[in-house]
Amino acid sequence: MNQDKTPGLRSTMRIIVGISGASGVILGVNLLKALAQHTDCETHLVVTEGAQATFPYETGMRLDEVARLSTHYHAINDMAAPISSGSFITDGMVIVPCSMKTLAGVVTGYSDNLLLRAADVCLKERRRVVLVPREMPLSSIHLGNMLKASRHGCVVMPPMMTFYNKPQTIQDMIDNLTGRIMMAFGLSFPGFAPWK
After folding, report:
1. How many domains, the chain?
2. 5 has a pLDDT exceeding 50
3. Is 171 among the domain residues?
4. Is residue 131 within a helix (H) or strand (E), and if so which, with residue range?
């Protein structure tokens, strides 16, 4: 766990979770639930309008229910939120799912909402940014943007199905991805079985 070097600032891990409007918002919800199991992890949630519209279809949840899974919720247009500043120290950010529109915004630095601004801040401060892109099939534009994101320092982690762990349910597959995301921040997750 990364901790501030300045005494008295904080002793917990701090992760920004962005949920954008691609299909797969359940992945973001599952990650929030998993991070909440770590009492020393503070989460800052920001959700796009597209994701807000997708929650009822794919999870049966409303925005306020999802927001309660996080430590702090920030409105998408609240550009004065603490996560919009580099002096607000975090351990990084996850965008899950990451729509192709959001991906394009990240790689071009087009920060017209808080989610994109928070990602831009993490990149300029050299903090970890994990993108979970959701689209199929992928155009050459999408692939080019993923390559650019990787070159900018992002970890690009598409939600690929795995079979070596012998998943029995969709939840098993979601948990495996959640575990991989958390592993990128040095966090454990009981639903994830690493290769032995």
Report:
1. 1
2. no
3. yes
4. strand 128-133
Question: Does 27 fall in a domain?
Answer: yes
**Cis peptide bond N-terminal to 97, omega within 30:** yes
Q: Is residue 56 part of a domain?
A: yes
pTM for this prediction: 0.93
Q: Is residue 55 part of a domain?
A: yes
Residue 15, token pair as written in the block: 């992760």
Range of the domain at 153: 13-183
Q: 3-class SS at 1?
A: coil
Q: pLDDT tens across 10-55, in order?
A: 568 999 999 999 999 999 999 999 999 999 999 999 999 999 999 9
As a whole number of angstroms, the distance between CA 72 and CA 82 comes to: 10
Instruction: Answer positive or negative: Cα dihedral of 125, 11, 188, 34.
Output: negative
d(CA 190, CA 175): 9
Spell out the long-range contacts of 7-12 with Cβ–Cβ below 8 A and sequence spacing 24 or more: 9/89, 10/42, 10/89, 11/40, 12/40, 12/41, 12/42
**Residue 116: CA count within 13 A, CB half-sphere:** 17
Cβ partners under 8 Å of residue 87, min gap 6: none
Q: Assign residue 69 the CATH number of its domain.
A: 3.40.50.1950
Q: How many CB atoms lie within 10 A of CB 131?
A: 27
At 134, list the tokens: 């959701």
* CB 33, CB 69: distance < 8 Å: yes
